[in-house]
Design brief:
With 320 residues, this protein is α/β, with parallel strands linked by helices. Helix content is 36%, strand content 20%. Helix 5 packs across helix 6 and helix 8 runs parallel beside helix 9.
């Protein structure tokens, strides 16, 4: 009997140690599933079976996934392991704990500026959307002006250098090789083409957002304009959010990419994940793109979002 109890305790100790070990790794690297069954205390045998101890390690690099993280569809982010958008920074305190009376979602729509199908629909969407506009392209300024007239919040979708040479961030890009002065000059030109911007998020930028010197230059201009910054999370090695907090800039990180697949049902499923995150944390930020299917999914989901007591808000409302 004593031997059986000893083995039981030994097995439980191993499970606890392994669980703690994987947790300490902050499993951006994975998840652990442990199921313990059959504890027969009546017969005092204490049979305990470890049914499954499985670590699912998710290396999210381009090479291991075999999928580029920087395409027009945006970064591939596993929302189950990424930090909550409520982990944000305000100018007054490092982490503000405030009572939120109603859960909120803020949805950013990226890649406006070319007049793509879905542009007018997003501008006229009947709930708050934050529209992130690429600089120095065909309709950058025109879309910003029309979005402002419709009461939408506007962001500069700042092109930043990616690791992949195949990815083309477009005009107005900030590169790691630029000097501080060159970065500021480029950003000022970009801002001039996207009037009324309340904040900035990165377009591509896996290389640039990993570089602290580059990010300090970018964020210094954002701070000088009293704007906020959202890290799109195109790299798991991004230092952008950390540096923004250090510089006392209102900031947050993307929680969930909504439309890595251009399929209405898929997008609706991702919106439901965003709702769940908001119900859990009080608020959540998601990123979609200027596509007709994304608009249709958002429109169809309005009743479901609001029936769960969740409201659509602008990004600035979450950072306020």
């Amino acid at each position: 009997m004593k031997i059986k109890i000893f083995y039981t305790l030994a097995i439980l100790t191993i499970v606890i140690i392994l669980t703690g070990f994987f947790s300490a790794l902050n499993l951006d690297s994975g998840r652990i599933f442990v199921k313990v069954i059959e504890a027969n205390t009546k017969e005092e045998t204490h049979h305990i079976k470890i049914v499954k101890l499985e670590s699912i390690v998710k290396h999210r690099s381009d090479e291991l996934l075999g999928i580029p993280t920087e395409k027009d569809v945006g970064a591939l982010i596993d929302d189950e392991v990424i930090s909550s958008s409520s982990e944000r920074y305000h100018q007054d305190t490092d982490r503000i704990s405030k009572k939120i009376t109603q859960p909120r979602i803020a949805i950013i729509i990226d890649d406006l500026g070319y007049g793509s199908r879905g542009t007018e629909e997003m501008i006229n969407f009947p709930r708050p959307l934050t529209l992130s506009i690429l600089p120095l392209v065909t309709y950058s300024k025109d879309i910003a002006l029309r979005a402002k007239e419709k009461g939408k919040e506007i962001m500069l979708h700042l092109p930043m250098e990616p690791h992949s040479l195949q990815s083309k961030p477009g005009p107005g890009v900030v590169k790691v090789a630029m000097t501080h002065k060159e970065i500021i000059e480029q950003m000022r030109e970009d801002f001039a083409s996207v009037p009324f911007a309340s904040g900035v998020n990165n377009h591509m930028g896996s290389k640039a957002t990993e570089d602290e010197r580059t990010m300090r230059a970018v964020l210094s201009e954002i701070k000088a304009r009293n704007l906020y910054f959202i890290d799109s999370r195109t790299s798991i090695k991004s230092v952008a959010f950390t540096v923004a907090r250090e510089m006392r800039i209102p900031s947050a990180r993307n929680r969930i990419n909504l439309d890595n697949q251009d399929d209405i049902e898929y997008i609706k499923g991702r919106i439901r994940l965003l709702i769940d995150a908001a119900l859990k944390d009080g608020e959540a930020i998601g990123i979609g793109h200027v596509r007709l299917n994304t608009f249709l999914a958002l429109q169809e989901m309005i009743p479901e979002v609001e029936s769960k007591g969740v409201s659509f808000v602008y990004v600035s409302d979450i950072l306020r």
